[in-house]
Design brief:
Chain C: InterPro entries: MetI-like, MetI-like_sf. The complex is a heterotrimer. By secondary structure, chain A is of the alpha/beta class. Chain A is built from 20 helices and 14 strands. Chain B is mainly alpha-helical. The radius of gyration of chain B is 24 Å and the shape is globular. Chain B starts with a helix and ends in an 8-residue tail after the last helix. The chains are: A alpha/beta, B mainly alpha, C mainly alpha. At the B-C interface, helix 1, helix 2, helix 4, helix 5 and helix 6 of B face helix 1, helix 2, helix 6, helix 7 and helix 8 of C.
Chain lengths: ~450, ~300, ~300
């Protein structure tokens, strides 16, 4: 028996594999533009179901103005959105236009899958001056070209449970007037303590407060660091303490998690959970965010983003919004962020896609979005419409527009290797909250992060 | 192999002619399976090994980088953490699953032969991994889950089953035990049914009690079956992915970042397919070594029956 | 293993139970207690799924520990079948997206059936080649086949995806089925184990009657293999029905979406909304139901024949 000889037919059976190999080698693995859609249909992807009706209205308006084009909107849930998008780029079956997010967009820029918008005639016709300040820069790549058309913006504010505040005798203005300090917590921590109530009804600032059996926490938390730099959680605090996440606001190449300013902020912040003023890790279901914590009355206030407004407004509990507390530098700062629409390079109708993007940024569409009262659109005039709607519904819009008006906003870190940074920093931040490690452990993480940029 | 003994009784000439005919037939019969094997198993594996020596971001051609990925892997604390976490998971999962499956199989063998019972025991297998994970995510939820409600009744503090560093991996291991134990039990049970009664009767006549006969007779006779069951379940267990992806996503603080999840994240989340391939090769090697050791240790190829 | 053992399995003889005492020895009580505990632990999650599926989400949050559905409604099931309108769905805590249920069911059935039928056929053929035929290198090739068991699924995921794309089968049910359609090492191994124990005498009798080797496969071995065929058939059907990540990657539109992937609709749609637990539980029950029914029909066959019918 010749052990090394495969039967002839099995060798022959390898032919299909050989052919497939050759095919792969020849055509390479980059996506080809095999788009099954006829090219006068613009394939648009988005994840937010609550915005679907607005965009369907916009699509109708667009099709009226552009009878030669149709818009097909597909919605994928957030959990699946990015993996589907990635798979589609590889397969060459992706959308023509999609809703982009700041956390993912640098990755796509470096992979060269986004079409720069500057060269499209329709884009050039968009009045970007009408946008909120700073949005266009957020979506400008390191090469100076624009990769996303801003469509909305958001900032962070403190949402509070009206009933709990009333019972504590706290005026919502006190939230924005209070000040935090890394040493001792400042007047803000006193406020949080006062709002915390233990199982026996003792408040956090009264003697005998049982920090192990707390019924109402002063400040809620469901996530150690958000996507990256604690956008909805502690970014504002760190910024008012003088911290800058990266060496440059946009497209930096060096992270500063070893800065004592952010470390002392984080030590104070997560330290609130030791004192019983903030939930410990895992006490609440993190998948549902902080909304449930404050609406159920388990927590007095939470910091959250403006994109959640509609959800807070529609909850049965009365929730109000106040501007974030001040910090050591005397101001109250918030992250400003926003979504944008991007055109895919491998699209078979880039020009049509650009037209749709331009329409989404136009006054007509933005007004439609504004009237739905779900997000603040990027145009300032449309923002005013939304602000009025929020005010009518009992949610104070100045909590969100305030930082923008007085220029106290800053960007999230927008850099290359975003996914690598996230996968390094998030477990480290979780360690701080879940296992109460000191923030100095971030020094090692910071080295690892900066190493990624050196390679 | 008993087949060859029969052939020895034929003439040598007859044997070689039969061999040739068998060869042609074998080729015909093997072709479809071989195509599937080559195209969808061998080719991706070879390609994966090649890619492990490159830097590849899925959208531009791969670039050869020699052993760089392997060097990175050896110095990557997250990789070693993943290894450790995965091994911890496998030990708890397989240990519990095998023990419980054995007990259930014995109970089914000695207590009752009811098909209904066997059907019930198999039911969790009908539900997919993803669905099982979602259901237990709900049952073990810290706020709304019934498991913690029960704990509260008893007077014990709530446990963050899937959010606590110490509990997360054991919990995931237990979830998968729930899903797979019935199937494993039935496999062992089938093996139990194969055992000849005469050996047991002889033992009973000699005065051996339940425990004695179990350890000295049942276990040794079951060895080949247990060995094969163990090999299969260990291989599957090392590749745990769905459950973790749905429940904890690797957290908290990488406490449940099992190897296949880390590889997936590096490949599809961070577009570093070369590095991911290197780690996959490592996983393949680990599986190969463990299987080989298991095979040897349990002498799975032979049986005490003959 | 000899044929006597195989025959014993067929007859399903009950081993004599050890009854040293009358009925309720402490040993038996303990044994039954354990068995009952096992049954409860096994069935409880199913009950909990049902109870959750029959309520509204606000009701679930208000009464997390009630044993009966807190706010009884069939709403979740209506959402699954796409029968509920958006406003009511949102009122009950759902997301309001529509689900094209019957289409997905059909797709799942098509894919699973295709995979099962083909895999059974091809694997049985290969197993026959490895067990009943004698040819040079047979055992070595078999070892290579079985080595395939150790390849982590992540290894094959991307290359398969790219290959399916090159074949133009993205967003196509055939594309979903292709990688596993031909064989799996486990199936080949399973059948081979069984075939090795088909008595030689029967096969030789057929050969003497003038049946060709190929004929012995179709007329002797296969008919005797109804049990392992049914067993593996069900197992394959179940695992292909429950596959999630591969169909998720390959399908883009409703035309190729399968039921398990459609479940994704009930998980959080956006960072804003919470999970529609009631809808999710209802969907998982509905997705599992065909499997449970199929199992019920074939139960006796499967449960009594699972496993190795002979170990060498």
């Amino acid at each position: 028996m010749n052990a090394n000889q495969l039967p002839a037919k099995t060798r022959a059976a390898r032919f299909p594999a050989v052919l497939a190999t050759a095919a792969l080698a020849l055509t390479g693995c980059a996506g080809t533009t095999e788009n099954a859609q006829p090219s006068n249909t613009i394939d648009y992807w988005m994840w937010d179901t609550s915005q679907l009706p607005s965009y369907q209205k916009c699509a109708a308006g667009f099709e009226e103005a552009n009878p030669d084009l149709k818009v097909k909107i597909t919605q994928y849930g957030w959990d699946d959105y990015w993996s589907k998008l990635t798979a589609s780029f590889i397969a060459g079956t992706g959308p023509d236009v999609f809703t982009n997010h700041v956390s993912q967009y640098p990755q796509f820029v470096s992979l060269d899958v986004l079409a720069p918008l500057d060269d499209f005639k329709d884009i050039q016709g968009v009045d970007q001056e009408a946008f909120q300040d700073g949005l266009k820069d957020l979506w400008t790549g390191p090469d100076g070209k624009q990769y996303g058309m801003p469509k909305d913006w958001d900032t962070i504010a403190m949402y509070y449970n009206q009933k709990i505040l009333d019972e504590a005798g706290v005026d919502p203005k006190e939230i924005s007037d209070s000040q935090f300090s890394p040493e001792g917590g400042g007047s803000f921590e006193k406020l949080v303590a006062h709002l915390s109530i233990d199982a026996n009804g003792v408040r956090g600032d009264e003697p005998g407060f049982d920090k192990n059996h707390v019924k109402v926490y002063g400040l809620g938390l469901s996530n150690a660091g958000g996507d990256n730099a604690g956008q909805s959680q502690w970014a504002g605090f760190a910024a008012t303490n003088g911290w800058q996440a990266t060496d440059q606001p946009l497209w930096g190449t060096h992270y500063n998690y070893d800065d004592p300013k952010v470390q002392e902020t984080l030590d104070w912040y997560f330290g609130l959970s030791d004192k019983g003023f903030m939930p410990r890790y895992g006490q609440f279901n993190s998948a549902d965010g902080v909304l449930g914590q404050v609406t159920s009355g388990s927590v007095a206030m939470v910091s959250d983003g403006a994109w959640m407004n509609a959800s807070y407004i529609s909850s049965d509990t009365k929730i109000g919004a106040a501007r974030l507390p001040k910090g050591p530098d005397g101001t109250s700062k918030s992250v400003i962020n926003g979504l944008a629409d991007s055109v895919v390079k491998s699209s078979d109708n880039q020009e049509g896609g650009a037209r749709w993007v331009a329409y989404l940024a136009s006054k007509q569409c933005q007004d439609v979005v504004a009237k739905a009262g779900v997000v603040f659109p990027s145009r300032t005039d449309a923002t005013n419409i939304t602000s009025k709607i929020y005010a009518q519904q009992g949610m104070d819009p100045t909590a969100f527009t305030g930082p923008v008006k007085d220029g106290n906003t800053f960007y999230l870190p927008v850099t290359d290797h975003g996914a690598d940074v996230t996968s390094l920093i998030i477990p480290a931040l979780e360690d701080l909250w879940a296992n109460r490690q000191p923030a100095s452990t971030l020094n090692g993480t910071n080295d690892a992060i900066n190493n990624v940029f050196i390679k | 192999m008993s087949s060859s003994t029969n052939y020895r009784s034929l003439g040598a000439a007859k044997r070689s002619r039969a061999s040739k005919q068998d060869l042609r037939l074998a080729i015909i019969f093997l072709t479809p399976a071989a195509i599937g094997f080559m195209v969808f198993l061998v080719w991706p594996t070879l390609r994966g090994i090649w890619l492990s020596f490159t830097s590849y971001n899925l959208l531009t051609p791969a670039e050869f980088v020699g052993f760089a990925n392997y060097e990175r892997m050896l110095g990557d604390p997250v990789f070693w953490n993943s290894m450790k976490v995965t091994v911890e998971y496998v030990v708890i999962n397989i240990g519990l699953q095998t023990a419980i499956a054995l007990i259930i199989a014995l109970l089914m063998h000695r207590l009752t032969q009811s098909t209904l019972l066997r059907g019930i025991v198999l039911m969790p297998y009908l539900v997919s991994n993803v669905v099982t994970a979602i259901v237990f995510l709900w049952v073990l939820d810290v706020q709304f889950g019934v498991a913690n409600q029960v704990l509260e009744w008893i007077g014990v503090d709530k446990i963050g089953f899937l959010s606590s560093e110490t509990w997360a991996i054991p919990t995931i291991a237990l979830i998968n035990v729930w899903r797979h134990v019935g199937y494993t039990a039935l496999l062992i049970f089938a093996g139990l049914q194969m055992l000849p009664n005469d050996v047991f009767e002889a033992a009973k006549l000699d005065g051996a009690g339940e425990f004695r006969s179990f350890f000295s007779i049942t276990m040794p006779l079951l060895r080949p079956i247990m060995a094969l069951v163990l090999i299969m379940t260990v291989i599957g267990s090392f590749q745990v992915f769905d459950t973790v992806a749905v429940t904890t996503g690797g957290g908290p603080a990488n406490a449940t970042n099992v190897l296949q999840l880390y590889i997936y994240d590096v490949a599809f989340g961070r577009f570093q397919f070369g590095y991911a391939s290197a780690m996959s090769v490592a996983l393949l090697l680990v599986l190969g070594i463990i299987t080989f050791i298991q095979f040897r240790l349990t002498r799975a190829g032979s049986s005490d029956m003959n | 293993m000899t044929t006597t053992a195989a025959r014993r399995v067929e007859a399903n003889i009950e081993p004599k139970p050890t009854k040293t005492r009358r009925r309720l020895s402490p040993g038996r009580i303990v044994a039954w207690a354990i068995m009952i505990l096992v049954i409860i632990v096994t069935l409880f999650p199913f009950y909990w799924m049902l109870r959750t599926a029959l309520s509204t989400n606000p009701g679930l949050q208000a009464n997390p520990d009630s044993w009966l559905p807190p706010e009884f409604t069939f709403g979740a099931f209506e959402r699954v079948f796409g029968l509920q309108d958006t406003e009511q769905a949102i009122a009950e805590g759902g997301s309001g997206t529509q689900l094209n249920f019957w289409r997905y069911l059909l797709n799942s059935v098509f894919v699973s059936t295709l995979i099962t039928v083909c895999q059974l056929a091809f694997s049985a053929m290969a197993a026959f080649a490895f067990s009943r035929l004698n040819w040079p290198g047979r055992d070595k090739v078999f070892a290579i086949f079985i080595g395939g068991l150790m390849v982590p699924s992540i290894f094959t995921l991307l290359p398969n995806f790219v290959l399916i794309k090159q074949l133009g089968l993205i967003d196509n049910l055939l594309g979903i089925a292709l990688p596993t359609m031909f064989m799996t090492p486990f199936a080949v191994f399973f059948f081979r184990q069984f075939f090795l124990n088909v008595p030689k005498e029967i096969e030789e009798a057929a050969l003497l009657d003038g049946v060709s080797k190929m004929g012995t496969f179709f007329r002797v071995v296969l008919p005797m293999s109804s049990s392992p065929l049914a067993t593996l058939g069900i197992l394959t059907y179940i695992s292909s029905w429950n596959d999630y990540f591969w169909p998720l990657m390959v399908s883009y539109t409703d035309s190729s979406r399968v039921l398990t992937v459609a479940l994704g609709v009930f998980r959080s749609q956006s960072p804003q909304s919470g999970t529609d637990w009631a809808g999710l539980m209802a969907a998982t029950l509905v997705a599992a139901l065909p499997m449970i029914l199929l199992f019920g029909v074939f139960a006796k066959r499967i449960v009594n024949s699972i496993g190795f019918s002979g170990i060498k």
